[in-house]
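Minutes, structural biology subgroup

Action item carried over from last meeting: produce the structure token record for HAD-IIA family hydrolase (Micromonospora aurantiaca). EB confirmed the sequence was re-checked against the source entry. Recorded below for completeness.
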Amino acid sequence: MTGYAGDTASGADRGEPDRAGAGGRLVDAYSLVVFDLDGVIYLIDRPIPGAVEAVGRLHAEGRAVAYATNNASRRSSEVADLLTGMGVAARPAEVLTSAAATAELLRDRLPEGAPVLVVGAEALRAELRAVGLRPVSTADEEPAAVAQGYGPQVGWSDLAEASLAVRAGAPWYATNTDRTLPSPRGPLPGNGSLVAVLRTALGRDPDVVVGKPEPALFTTAARRAGTGRTLVVGDRLDTDIEGARRAGLDSLLVLTGVSDAAELLAAPEERRPAYVSFDLAGLFDPAAVVAVPGRAADDGWSVTEAGADLVLDGAGPPLEALAALCAVAWSTGAGPRVRAQSTAAEEALAAFGLDD
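Output recorded by EB:
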């Protein structure tokens, strides 16, 4: 069951995207690999171990790559420079940001030169200027729209001006609604947490959310692949994986960022990936990736229900145990609390942080 060989029902049978064929490397089934950034390639400004080498290997093989990020605090060119500085040779055209996508959407809906109140970083203002719109800072300037994106310096006064503008009738655009963003010290408040402040004050949701899990970033990237297949690689079930599914694309969850094994076991159908791996090695090594769900029982692992809990018994590679746990959890709603019935099961659960 390691890798993506197996006898589970096809994606088409379940109303999902078709999965890669059995055998060989996962990456060989796709023409384009679209990476999320934070939690997949880097954490804030530090590359995740093995990520630079993985992308370099794709480049060396002549494979197309793209980067889709909800982070609105950097422009595409800045993201490309950051990646290049880490050893990943990236071009601005390969980077799709929610800031740029928001600016392009507003450009299509507003007259040239229209004022837009910005809550966020300078990158969002720069993207708006680049498409011919005029960033402003106060509701007194009668903005035609409010654009809200993540910025570490966003404060109460920024949110207050946005609240006044929206109450006065300006449509409210959020670049994304990520509740958190990853960091070496653990998850930190993301743009979704700031959006929640305005949602509480206004008593309503944004008029438009541009970034993931909306499919626009992924569908734009997939069009560049032509007739080839696209694989989305992400660390968040609620943005990367759900966004990929909305776009009709296969997805690989890597456990290097926000979402963990417990969240995976509890994932609703719209947030379930096609594959799981510890890190980007799963693109190349069939033993480092698994298709999910697996089977509840095979020659190595078995999973049974015990009330609301799952019980893991047997032995084998940890990823196969996780796939078997997904099979039962997703079909019955049991878990994500798991108990071990063998020493190997205890070790597997510890590897996924499921041993509490």
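Discussion: Residues 1 and 125 are 49 Å apart (CA to CA).
Next step: EB to file the record with the rest of the batch.
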